[in-house]
Amino acid sequence: DSGVTQTPKHLITATGQRVTLRCSPRSGDLSVYWYQQSLDQGLQFLIQYYNGEERAKGNILERFSAQQFPDLHSELNLSSLELGDSALYFCASSAGYSSYEQYFGPGTRLTVT
Amino acid sequence: AQSVTQPDIHITVSEGASLELRCNYSYGATPYLFWYVQSPGQGLQLLLKYFSGDTLVQGIKGFEAEFKRSQSSFNLRKPSVHWSDAAEYFCAVGTGGSYIPTFGRGTSLIVHP
Predict the structure, then answer these.
(1) For A45, nearest residue in chain B (alpha carbons)
(2) Do residues A45 and A33 lie in contact, with contact meaning Cβ atoms separated by under 8 Å?
(3) Nearest Cβ partner for B100 among A48, A103, A104
(4) DSSP label of B101
(5) Residue in B43, B94, B104 closest to A104 by CB
(6) Residues of chain A positioned with their CB less than 8 A from the CB of B32
(7) CB A105, CB A88: distance < 8 Å
(8) Which residues contact B93 (CB under 8 A, 6 or more apart)?
(9) pLDDT tens-place string over residues B40-87
(10) Do A2 and B43 touch (CB under 8 A)?
(11) CA of A81, closest CA in chain B: separation in Å?
(12) pLDDT tens digits, A29-72
């Protein structure tokens, strides 16, 4: 158990809908990272937050957004969902501002029908 | 930009046999290199990392990896595989700039009894 929790485990929704994925980092970790894992794209970095502020941005679509709250949990919002958004979404956390020592949560599997 | 290639999509070994998973990277300078393991239904777990120094790196669960600059490789090895090692293995490279690793597409390890 990495100490990173993600909810829900599974999510099934229809095209055009909006969903919110939630992540709680390990106790004491200030950075949260979001990744998308799909069969065709592999594991892609989406975005990082550090202590409430956006720190780095990867291949995140404009339809997607994220935020980190004062209690350090993070939410990833996906809107106008398309079939191609079906994937596993991982959250990871690390202690510092810049760290490769990332601890991954179990992921949320999103299925868009 | 850096990239990672894992040439083998699937590897099948018998329990007790030795294992080598291949990883090649593309980056101009000395990279930071990582191996992660993803068990079914789980997030990624860091097995080992190379930043500098000794090119043979020891990790958790009995794994080791060797950095070979001349071959741009960072292959993962284990002398005797256990059935519980069946999982997806990801090699990743970082450059120290953004501290966001770039992941390979993964190698699925199947262990026969």
Answers:
(1) B100
(2) yes
(3) A48
(4) P
(5) B43
(6) 100
(7) no
(8) B2, B3, B4, B25, B27, B31, B32, B33, B34, B101, B102
(9) 888 899 999 998 889 999 999 999 999 999 999 999 999 999 999 999
(10) yes
(11) 23
(12) 999 999 999 988 889 999 999 999 999 999 899 999 999 999 99
CA distances from A5 to A74, B1, B64 (A): 11, 32, 29
DSSP helix/strand/coil, B12 = strand
Backbone angles phi, psi at B61, to 5 degrees: 60, 25
Could you count the other beta carbons within 10 Å of the beta carbon of residue B26?
Answer: 13
Q: If you write DSSP's letter for every residue of A37-92 in order, what string do you get?
A: EETTTEEEEEEEEETTEEEEE-S--TTEEEEE-TTS-EEEEE-S--GGG-EEEEEE
Residue appearing with tokens 């994220």? A66
Q: How many angstroms separate the Cα of B11 from the Cα of each of A17, A27, B14, B71, B88? A: 39, 36, 10, 21, 10
Q: Which of A4, A43, A99 shows the shortest C-beta gap to B99?
A: A99
CB contact (8 A) between residue B43 and residue A92: yes
Residue B12 token pair = 């099948």
CB of A100 within 8 Å of a chain B CB? The answer is yes
